[in-house]
Amino acid sequence: MTGREVIAPAADAVAEALAAGRAVRDAEQGPAPEDAPYGLLGGALGHSWSPRIHRELGSFPYALHALPDPADAADLVRSGDWRGLNVTIPHKRLAAEAADVRTPFVEAHGAANTLVRLDDGRVLADNTDPWGFAFLLDGFLRRHMGADASWLRGRKAVVLGTGGASEAVGSVLSEAGAEVARISRSGGPGHGYGTLVEDHGDAALLVNTTPVGMYPACPASPLPAGILGAMEGLRGVLDIVYNPLRTGLVLDARDAGIPAEGGLVMLVAQALRSSELWQGVGLDHDLVGRIAGELERGSMNVFFIGMPGCGKTGAARRLARMVQRPFVDLDDAFEMEYGETPAACIARDGEAAFRDRETAVLAAHGADTGLVVACGGGVVCRPENRRLMEQNGTVVMLDRPLDQLSRNDRPLTAARGVEALAAERMPLYREWADLEVRCTGSAEGDAVLVRSLLGL
Ligand SMILES: Nc1ncnc2c1ncn2[C@@H]1O[C@H](COP(=O)(O)OP(=O)(O)O)[C@@H](O)[C@H]1O
Ligand SMILES: O=C(O)C1=C[C@@H](OP(=O)(O)O)[C@@H](O)[C@H](O)C1
Ligand SMILES: [Mg+2]
């Protein structure tokens, strides 16, 4: 189906622009590690947002040191020519031990995420995760409860997970005066997931500190669906996972009408605190919201939905080109994956078989970030497709009068009639959409409009 439409402007220019974009991204990953004053030390780092964040905060160049071998990591900590390091899995403990001086939190918990080179050359180990979580918590309580951290005094907070991050989170909650219950999947009576509702149904806040729900196994939740809604005292949910932007837990909470936020603000806030320590100055704390907002805008996918033939493919392709993002047409992706068009699949195996495969194709792209995606018109026929989009995406409905819809090669429109399809689907498109756009008359016009409405 690729190439069904003729698109005029310069494909070469687009390719060049995309290549330039990649070059910028590469530069953001920093210079050769040994030359950078700042950086991140970990085992396998993959794609990290830290170089981008610290660049905005003024701690730049910032390099990635992926050193799986503890001996190499210790060597960098002891003898590297750096001013500041962040530390992540699996070296937080090693960093705490190898430092010359430790803050009380690091002394108590034995894990550091920030190393600071002091003026006299010694290494200070600190942990800015509690600061980052306190920042997230404070904003959350202000936004949703109209209160500060004192709201937690005398209330119960449940923390999922018992690892290092749970200690940072637990310490902040305890300090605010909450009664903290830390539970884990393998915890015994009162400390497990199985009896969560009975044991802790009165908790006002629930925080996930486990990696369950993290990319690429997403959207997933550490808790079975329905549990949150059964916890009668629950007023808020936080998940420190930030990729996807909305985890399964966050989506479940919102479905149950409970305010919920992910961990992106914590990620940026802990980085800001590290940058303050390295630079020895106070930074503007409004930077946290600004940087988190930019990261969120850049990584959100844009999904086009709407009636078959309304112009999703054309508008999405043009928008992708305008904002230099990868474009995915799910019908094309389907064809590449299964070797036949959706129309051929529906004709041979029927609609149900097509829908199963369509959901699998959507799942693969929904976990990705920064895409512009044209869905097939029937994407709303499967309820589970909604969160595959929502986890990382903004959903845009294109609305075009039924008598103007294209009918070429649209088997379901032909079989059932456009009115019947519309009666079934229009309410769903409207319900799923974050934004409804009335078609302007050209795919180009639609793309320009969506771009400006989404601020891309
Ligand atoms: N906004 C629009 N106004 C008028 N015609 C359009 C518009 N967008 C697309 N078209 C035409 O309608 C047809 C269907 O567009 P397409 O993008 O394939 O729709 P969809 O992906 O929603 O099924 C194409 O032939 C295209 O040229
Ligand atoms: O409406 C539908 O059920 C369908 C729409 C088509 O996509 P377009 O909406 O892009 O035509 C394609 O996925 C398939 O033929 C089924
Ligand atoms: Mg299409």
UniProtKB/TrEMBL annotation:
GO biological process: amino acid biosynthetic process; aromatic amino acid family biosynthetic process; chorismate biosynthetic process; shikimate metabolic process
Leader peptide range in chain numbering: none
Entry GO terms, CC: cytoplasm
Amino-acid positions noted as binding substrate in the UniProt annotation, renumbered to this chain: D331, R355, G377, R425
Source superkingdom: Bacteria
Names of required cofactors: Mg(2+)
Residues annotated for Mg(2+) binding in this entry: T313
MF GO annotations: ATP binding; magnesium ion binding; shikimate 3-dehydrogenase (NADP+) activity; shikimate kinase activity
Binding site for ATP: G309, C310, G311, K312, T313, G314, R410
Catalytic activity line of the entry: shikimate + ATP = 3-phosphoshikimate + ADP + H(+)
E.C. designation(s): 2.7.1.71
CDD domains to which the protein is assigned, alphabetical: SK
The keyword Amino-acid biosynthesis is annotated on this UniProt entry: yes
Cofactor binding summary note: Binds 1 Mg(2+) ion per subunit.
Keywords: Amino-acid biosynthesis, Aromatic amino acid biosynthesis, ATP-binding, Cytoplasm, Kinase, Magnesium, Metal-binding, Nucleotide-binding, Transferase
Limits of the Shikimate dehydrogenase substrate binding N-terminal domain: 41-115
Pathway of action: Metabolic intermediate biosynthesis; chorismate biosynthesis; chorismate from D-erythrose 4-phosphate and phosphoenolpyruvate: step 4/7; Metabolic intermediate biosynthesis; chorismate biosynthesis; chorismate from D-erythrose 4-phosphate and phosphoenolpyruvate: step 5/7
Coiled-coil zones: none
InterPro entries, A to Z: Aminoacid_DH-like_N_sf (IPR046346), NAD(P)-bd_dom_sf (IPR036291), P-loop_NTPase (IPR027417), Shikimate/glucono_kinase (IPR031322), Shikimate_DH-bd_N (IPR013708), Shikimate_DH_fam (IPR022893), Shikimate_kinase/TSH1 (IPR000623), Shikimate_kinase_CS (IPR023000)
Family indicated by similarity: Belongs to the shikimate kinase family.
Record text on subunit structure and interactions: Monomer.
Annotated function: Catalyzes the specific phosphorylation of the 3-hydroxyl group of shikimic acid using ATP as a cosubstrate.
Protein name (Swiss-Prot/TrEMBL): Shikimate kinase
